[in-house]
Amino acid sequence: MPDWLGQRHFPRYPIVVAALYAPEGPPPESTGAGWTRNLSEGGICLELTERIELSSSLRVRLRTDQECIAGQARIIWVRGPDPTGGILHGMTFTQLAPAQHQALRELLARRSSVWRAVVRVPQEIPVTCQIKGETRSPLQGRTGNISRRGLSLHLPLAILPGSALEVTLHSSHGPLTVEGTIVRVEPLDAQIPGEPIRHGFQFTDISHATGMTLGRILVEAL
Which of 77, 208, 211, 217 is the most exposed place for a label (fewest CB within 10 A)? Predict the structure, then answer.
């Protein structure tokens, strides 16, 4: 085993990406989804819905803003549930191919450019948006990128910052509805006539189960 695998002396960084996991062995009928709380070259802290036994070996797949990183890991500690409902699992990598290790190192090297440690993944999904408190018909649009904390929305009309929205994503997993607030709008001088207007949307109310489904959508899309 390479001497860098599983060593706790590697610094851990609070980088949040979506993940899929499954027991080692033949491909299972289903996999679980979660989100990282932190990452290092030696391991990860993964937030999951279920509690997995200590020393269990898993196949893990992480969705970054550029690619997926796949490897094998072993659970070395479990804690929770925490106030969000998630159960934290500390994992040490037991197998990571050289190309996957390099992709992980490059992600960690980009940590200073990751907004608030949350990786925004480019992903287009059709959406309908309803401005809360208004009776106008829902707006049709799409996402530009997705993270654990929010979305980039591309919409036909500009919506004022501070507006509360109910956004429904239409994916292969069925409709997924989240609530949040518009936090920024593409400047007028940057808008292109006839093109959708970009908005930053931050979640204000998203259940733990919905967050896990969102993570699954991101990883399975690549």
Answer: 77
